[in-house]
Please model this.
Amino acid sequence: MKNSMEQFEVVKIDQIVKVEEFKNFYESQTDDSENQLKSSLEQEGQLLPLTLSRDFQLIDGYRRLKLLCALCKTEVKVQFVDIEPSIDLRLSFNIYRVKTANDLTKEVLQVFKSVEKRQGQGNNGKSYDRYEIVKEKLNYRWKSPKAIRQFDKIIENDFENNLLLNGVVNKGWSLSDCEKYLSELKEIDLTKNHGFTAELTKGDLTIKQVNKFIEEKENLQNNYKDTFVIPNKATSFKMNCVDIVDVPSYTRSVATLFTSIPYYMLRGYDKKNLSSELGHEKTPEEFADNIGEVFGKVEGVLNETSNVFVNVGDTYDNGCAMDISGLVKAAILKHTKLKYKECIIWSKPNPHPQGEQVKRPINQIEYILWFVVDPSKSKYNLLKYTDQEKEVRITTGAKDVDKNGNVSKKTKSLSKPYKKIYNHIAAQDVDHMIKCATGKNKPAYDAFPTGHPALMSELLPVIPILMTTDETDLVYDPFGGANTTGRISLLLNRQYLGTELSTHYHRVGCKVLENTIEEINQNDLEIINSEYKEVEELTVAA
Model:
């Protein structure tokens, strides 16, 4: 290259021929960078020449030429090269250039475009080795023949904006992940309308996440059908909850119904059919009436000792609460024979923040409406508070014993899920109120990476289930979702029945139940029972 360069010359700017391909290869620099270069040219003059071919094609120096024109210069310094103009030649003059992510992607793309796939001899008389040429041009950042082959596949099948190649070059995406997506998973996602490719192209997901989501979605579809049963533990139906009365085996069999109903106008599960979705009625009164009708139809699974808990969150219009809980309470009483027993407050120590424009205190409560079938016969277990001197620790199974084999009276060793339950119960010290933090419901996200758009708080069902059921009793959640109620029921040795209308979330819920089976520990549950349940359980309402 150096031997082909002549001494600097001065030529008229209007003699220079701009080549659009060369001009547009690199992206524009930032305004600050442009202003710095312009100031340097103005104060110190042109220190570096433009690079031209013998026929005056401009190979390198487009930024300098543009700024010199802006400074009203008519002549520029140039150097001529006796090499045919090409993108590769332009790249060779820009090794130390400050480049954007797109610039770096285009450089890698150009390497693969410029090194042809062929066999035979090279220019040096030796065998043509494309892999060696490519990895040298890539400065040995990627070396193996496998990596070069993966690049070829990605480039041949990439999106129009080189999305995958850009991910590999600039974001550390794995070549293997990109190849797997193109070879195996992209077609599945597009054919089955999972929607993860769309999120990839919008920049919402990485290639690793997309692959994981597609594979786990397929796993849910292949392994969990519309009726999912864990014998003597749980049954989950993919069905409208109002149809549960058509399953004779559940007539009058539910001890406690615990559910969180859809929020009004705050969530959407099926974007194509929002207008017909529960929670998207025109008025809150219409929404509440529909909820009441639902409970009127599922009432057939309850018996005279049954309890019903309905978690209701409020919706605000122009900063004013719509009193959704009051409307729902009235509608349930209208459409059922249930008796209203109490309103339990769900207090959230860590409520979601609200904008500064909201002119009211942060709402840190929701309501749990409590109904019974027959107040004189409804089941109720009196819970007691813990001995505050005891310490609870997580264990992998071994109990806390001294050298003589005596179990410590001051400590309790519990596995992780049961320690959560223990600590949750210990935090309850106010009548008619359940303290329960919001936050990520990890079991649901363990079942599927995107969880559920309106997950129930992980421990919210604990107190109501302990208060109103005995072990092996049946707990029902008509709006099962990710089966948070089901998970707590299983951990507390209750049986569970769930219904969910959404196919996807039904499958997520099935996975949650399946994962929970591995966490059940009867010994840990006995410790909790010994701490918090009175010896004699009351079977009539207080």
The chain has two domains: 1-98, 224-532. The two ends are 95 Å apart (CA to CA). The domain at 1-98 is CATH 3.90.1530.10 (Conserved hypothetical protein from pyrococcus furiosus pfu- 392566-001, ParB domain).
